[in-house]
Amino acid sequence: MRDIKELESNGLKYWPSEIIEKEKKISILPHLLKTQDHFISILNISDSEPEAWLKVLKLNSSLSDNYFLKHLSILSDVGGEALQKLFGDFSDFFPNNKLQFNWNGSSHEYTFSSLKKRWSNKNVFIDGDGLSRDDISIESHPIVKDVAMFLIFGGLSTNTKLPEWVFEKCIIGSLIGKTEKLKQFVKERYIWVSRITGGAEANSLGNITEAYVKDFLIQELPNNWRVNKDKLPVSHNERTSLSVDIIVKSPSGNLCAIEVSFQVTTNSTIERKAGQAQSRQSLLHSKNCKIAYVIDGAGNFQRESALKSLCKYSDFTVTFAPNELNKLVTYLTENL
After folding, report:
1. Residues near 133 by Cβ (< 8 Å), separated by ≥ 6?
2. What would the pLDDT profile of 72-86 be if each residue is shown by its tens digit?
């Protein structure tokens, strides 16, 4: 049985930066869905000239400049990696730093004005940290305007040397002023984005922590081990397999169930897991399966009685710290 004090001394107590960053990226989706109609309305009335959207955006208090750019990035399906690669060959694609394009039956030219920083999600403030700021404006950060103009009109460029994906993805400019087509494009795109991110369910930090541990195990265990690809041969109701957070299967066919709990603030989740711990271990042991727990967070360590129960009825218990998760990997490889 793992000593509670020793377990706590090896815990992180508060969310690791990797999980916080993932949560930030996921949690922006509700705001994007909430502001998509504002985004559509801005482009609908911006068909007088290529930069008309700038004037309309200034008058719209519901959508910040970097969130407007985030809409463009998601709708174009052009992320930071693609932008960085393009920027690496910028002078080849945009002679004299100019984007020349045909729009609304006329030729137009836009001069990029801020090329000192590489194009990336961080540098244009559309990563998790950037979107949490409310002081980003095109006036103070013209790089935001440069990337926006590229995403809107890049696909209409007269330069045939641009990568093919630019002409396929950077097409929003062709929809400006076309109310129904633009609305349909945006709505359908966000339905797809919602499915990719798992919708509201993905907002749960609990799901992110489970994924964090699962990904760690997939990366650190040998390639012939299976993670979350099998069912447990036990059931509480004789109909469905016992549900746990993670299932690991060794090449020899042995299984280990893993339960994950990270609570910064105290709640009843760990009490529920503790109440099930003895019966779960007995059930799993009856089929020669093992059970381990990954427990962390200041809130969980306040529930000493529940922690003792989990440690007592666990075959192995660790925290979220990387060295602790490595101990779990060692345990699995030596005992399954």
Report:
1. 66, 125
2. 998 998 988 889 889
Which residue carries 């815990």 as its tokens?
11
Side chain identity at residue 320, one-letter code:
F
Give me the half-sphere count of Cα atoms (radius 13 Å) on the Cβ side of residue 169: 17
Dig out the tokens for 17 from the structure.
């930066």
Residue 294, strand partner residues? 260, 318
| SS3 labels along 211-278 | HHHHHHHHHHCCCCCEECCCCCCCCCCCCCCCCCCEEEECCCCCEEEEEEEECCCCCCHHHHHHHHHH
pTM as predicted: 0.56
How crowded is the C-beta side of 184, counted as CA atoms within 13 Å? 5
Residues 217 and 169 in one domain: no
> Does 331 reside within a domain?
yes
My answer on whether 170 and 224 are in the same domain is no
Q: How many Å separate Cα 14 from the centre of its chain? A: 19
Sign of CA dihedral 151, 157, 163, 164: positive
Are the C-beta atoms of residues 174 and 75 closer than 8 Å to each other?
no
**End-of-domain residue from the set 176, 211, 245:** 176
Split at pLDDT 50, 70, 90, the class of 22 is low
